[in-house]
Design a protein that fits this description.
Shape: globular
Number of helices: 6
Strand content: 15-25%
Structural class: alpha/beta
Number of strands: 8
Radius of gyration: 15 Å
CATH architecture: 3-Layer(aba) Sandwich
CATH topology: Rossmann fold
Strand order of the largest sheet: 5-4-1-6-7-8
CATH superfamily: HAD superfamily/HAD-like
């Protein structure tokens, strides 16, 4: 059986709403604050129907920092999978990003590489979609094409994605357009 391409998806700011303070995005800390962007389920289903495996790759360092219980993040993921059943897998890194570098914490490509091995994915035909420089660098390190959802964050890091859009819907439409022309 031939390997499938994938669309790797960041979670916060890509699939669900974040809180932006002082130009920086913050993940929801409570289940009741976890809200998907409108149209995410439909766009994910369209990508799935086009033959892409959908994998969420998300850093959740607030668990490692003791700010959020892992059970809250897992409940958010349960809610995400219920609302978007076309997602096949969720890869999570709880590393708080201090000290030794994790091979799974974005911008490292570990979550993408682990999912590719588990699901037998073709990275050369895959994409990473996210709203931050870490997502783009992670995708580049894994050898996938990248789409940046430009949210105007003030992070002081410039990256150049393969394509830049304003919304997740635009990202999905772009990927679908390239897969139909290939």
């Amino acid at each position: 059986m031939a390997q499938r391409p994938a669309v790797f998806l960041d979670r916060d700011g890509t699939l669900n709403v974040t809180v932006v303070r002082d130009g920086k995005p913050y993940a929801p800390e409570r289940l009741e604050d976890f809200q998907l962007f409108e149209g995410v389920a439909e766009d994910c289903l369209a990508l799935k129907k086009a033959g892409y495996a959908l994998v969420v790759a998300t850093n959740q360092p607030d668990v490692g920092r003791g700010k959020v219980a892992q059970s809250v993040i897992e409940s958010m993921h349960d809610r995400l999978l219920l609302a978007v059943p076309s997602i096949e897998r969720i890869e999570v890194c709880y590393d708080p990003g201090r000290g030794e570098k994790s091979l799974r914490r974005k911008p490292a490509p570990g979550m993408l590489l682990d999912a590719a091995k588990a699901l037998d994915l073709d990275l050369s035909r895959s994409w990473m979609v996210g709203d931050r420089w870490r997502d783009v660098q992670c995708g580049q390190a894994a050898g996938v094409k990248t789409v940046l959802i430009e949210c105007g964050y003030n992070e002081g890091v410039d990256v150049v994605a393969d394509h830049t859009v304003s919304t997740f819907h635009d990202a999905a439409q772009f990927i679908l357009g390239t897969s139909q022309s290939a």
